[in-house]
Design a protein that fits this description.
Blueprint: H1 2-51, H2 62-71, H3 76-88, H4 93-105, H5 108-113, H6 119-143, H7 167-199, H8 202-211, H9 213-227, H10 231-243, H11 248-260, H12 263-302
C-alpha cells in the first residue's frame, strides 16, 4: 500500500511540475501587469470614462465603456464605488452597466493569464467578454430606460490602499497583495489539474465536452458556477480541459459564468441591484454564456 501511494505521489508531482512550469510566468507577469495598471493607469482609465459623458455617442457609448471595464484592474468591490461616482456625475446607466459587466468578466491580469491557453482562446475570451459587457449595457438601455437600474446608496466606498508616496514601493505592495490574494488558488488549480490528468480518462472527457456540443455547453455553464473561485486558479484547469477535448465554445461559456457568478462578485452585485434586477442579471449571464458557447462552437464547426 505504501509503495502504491508513493508511486501515485510521484505521478502527481510529475504532472504538477509540468503544469507549473508551463504557466507560472503567465501568472507572475499577469500580476505585474495588473499592478502596473492599478498603480499608474487606474485614474487615467476612470478619467477617460468620465470624459465620455461630454460626448453624444448614445447607445454606441457601451462600446468604449465595455473596453474600459476590461482595462480596469479593480475587483468588483473596487469597481462599484467607482461606478457610483460615475452615477453621481450623471453618467448614463447603460454605459455604467457595460463598464461593470465587462469589469466583472475580465481585467488586465486575467487577460494576460489567459495567454497560457493559446492565442485562439485568448482572443475568444476577450471578444466574448467585451460583447457580453456591451450587450449588458444595451439591455439596460432597452428595458430600463425610464427607471433606475442601480442603487449605489447601500454600498460603502473603499479607501485606496495604493497610497505610498514612493511609486516603486506602491507597485511592490500592490504586487504583493495580488500574490497573497491569488497564489493559493493558483496552486490549488495546478493540483486539481494534476489530479485530473492522472485520474480522468481523456476519451471520456472528450465525449462529454467535445462531441456532444449542446450538452457540453450546458455542462460548462453549470460547472462554472461552483468551480470558479479565482481567475488564476482556473487557468490550469482550462488548459488541461482544452487539451482533453473541451471545445472553445464550452471554454467560453465557463469563462463567462465563472467570474459572473463568483460568490464575492454576486454579493457585490446583489447590494447595488436589489432582488428584481439581480434576477435579471442572473438570466442575462446564463443566456449570454450559453449563446456565446453555442455560437463559437458553430463557427468552429463550419470554419
Amino acid at each position: 500500500m505504501r509503495e502504491v501511494l508513493q508511486r501515485e505521489a510521484i505521478y502527481l508531482w510529475f504532472y504538477f511540475d509540468i503544469q507549473f512550469r508551463q504557466i507560472v510566468w503567465y501568472w507572475v507577469l499577469g500580476m505585474a501587469l495588473g499592478s502596473l495598471v492599478s498603480v499608474f493607469g487606474k485614474e487615467k482609465i476612470h478619467d477617460l470614462f468620465v470624459k465620455m459623458q461630454n460626448t453624444k455617442m448614445g447607445a454606441f457609448g457601451v462600446v468604449p465603456a465595455s473596453l474600459l471595464g476590461i482595462a480596469s484592474p479593480l475587483c468588483m468591490y473596487g469597481t462599484i464605488p467607482i461606478a457610483a461616482s460615475f452615477a453621481e456625475k450623471g453618467m448614463a446607466e447603460d454605459w455604467i452597466a457595460a463598464f461593470c459587466m465587462s469589469s466583472i468578466l475580465l481585467n488586465p491580469q486575467l487577460l494576460f493569464y489567459s495567454a497560457a491557453l493559446g492565442p485562439v482562446a485568448l482572443v475568444i475570451r476577450f471578444v466574448s467578454c467585451f460583447i457580453c459587457g456591451a450587450l449588458a449595457g444595451l439591455c439596460v438601455r432597452l428595458f430600463f430606460r425610464n427607471k433606475p437600474f442601480f442603487t449605489f446608496t447601500k454600498f460603502e466606498n473603499m479607501a485606496s490602499r495604493d497610497t505610498d508616496p514612493n511609486p516603486v514601493l506602491r507597485f511592490l505592495k500592490n504586487f504583493g497583495r495580488n500574490v497573497k490574494a491569488t497564489g493559493l488558488y493558483f496552486l490549488i488549480g495546478i493540483v486539481l489539474s494534476a489530479i485530473f490528468q492522472r485520474y480522468v480518462p481523456p476519451d471520456a472527457f472528450g465525449k462529454l465536452f467535445g462531441s456532444n456540443r449542446g450538452f457540453g455547453v450546458l455542462m460548462a455553464a453549470t460547472i462554472g458556477i461552483p468551480l470558479y473561485v479565482c481567475g488564476g486558479g482556473t487557468i490550469p484547469l482550462l488548459q488541461q480541459w482544452l487539451t482533453s477535448g473541451m471545445t472553445m465554445g464550452n471554454a467560453a461559456t465557463f469563462m463567462i459564468t465563472g467570474p459572473a457568478t463568483k460568490i464575492t462578485n454576486l454579493g457585490a452585485v446583489k447590494i447595488v441591484l436589489g432582488i428584481k434586477h439581480f434576477v435579471f442579471y442572473w438570466l442575462f449571464v446564463i443566456a449570454s454564456a450559453l449563446l456565446s458557447g453555442l455560437a463559437i462552437d458553430y463557427l468552429f464547426r463550419i470554419g
